[in-house]
Amino acid sequence: MAFRLNRRAALRGMIGGSAVMVGLPALEIMLNSNGTALADGGPLPLRFVAFYWADGVNIGRFEPAQKGASWELSEEMQPLLPVKDYINLVTGLQNHCENQMTHHEGMTVFNGYSYIQQGGGLVSNSGGPTLDQLIADKIGDATTIRAIHTQISKRDSTDGDDGTTTIAMSHRGTPGNLIAQTPQTNPQLVHQTLFGVPIDTLDTRPVRKRVLDAVKEDAARLNGKLGKIDKQRLDAHLQAVAELEAKILAAPPACTPPGIPDQTNTDVGGEEPITAVNQAMADLIKYAFTCDQTRVATVLFKRFVSSTVFDEINANEIHHNASHQGSETYHDGIVFQMQRLADLLVTLKNEPDGAGNLLDSTIVYASTDCSQGYSHAIARQPIILAGHGRNYLAHPGIHYQATAWNGDGNGPNGAGNTSDALLTCLRAWDEAAPSIGGGAPQTSNVISDVLA
Description:
By secondary structure, the protein is an alpha/beta fold. It has twelve helices and 15 strands.
């Protein structure tokens, strides 16, 4: 009888009396003959990432002039060139949030609900569950970890903006009974979640025994049962895990004494290592998807109205402040954020998965909290749909624009509903979903133009 391997198989071992597990990539022995499904006929996993960048864009420099399949990347979207075929760009839609206090209303693009104001200041709570959590609900217990939530810049908001809308982009539950999914700024702690090994154990044990050491015997037993290609893929996978672990272990210890806030992605000379943290998080998301430990992830690049300065590009002012001026510093900051989104997408694209790569099996929903940064407008908030979710979205992608821009940065108002993009994505997991959101932002419409 031919040897078969279940997709949920993992390498197991012990460290200091604690069980550890290393998931496996999608090996040929788990798949059908052409790599398009599991050997038992089940579908290959479909993944989702929500990516949020803050403080809007320069509409005139972000929205491409061309529409449809012949579109070209705009000035501010140029970093996405390596994955351009994987991009469906949605522009010109109207955010129908019923309240406005700048920035807060923009987060409606991630859930389809108006925020709930708290008191009389710049404080709001999310009005409903976000798309990532609806997808996690649909996936259920198919994976060990429901979702992972990451944050790149750790700077706080500076102008009194607060509430769950500010601190988290992901919310789980039902309207009126929501739990903010607080993102983790420290790659070491995301690593702990994925590996199940306490960080203090990794950083302080005398021998600094690696997780891979613990599963060495199990890996050797499995290796003897695999074919040539699967052996090469397993070796490459374990090498990637080893390299990732080595990078994390080489970083300053992230053990947080009781009572000290979790601010553990450490500044270097007062500057945030944003690119390095972003890449570490991208690698961890890749690992989590490859091993099917989770199929849902979020990336909060930076909070809106935060004190984040993009020092790596020699920015001379806080990005949010620059957004009010529409300066070249602001433009450079938008390009910098698109570069970091591109880093994530390229990381997924470069990782084999079945007959394709991880970006083939993923839908990445990326957006921001306003359209034109200096005006805080919520008409024409851009939405980037990357990946194609196993041929669910058009590939190569198109530029879908609800209305034509008249060039003054303020109008015309967007048409349709930004929530249409949310429902379009949700239906990749829940074909029967009748609608998404609530109140004025609710919709039962999808954007059929971007479907394959």
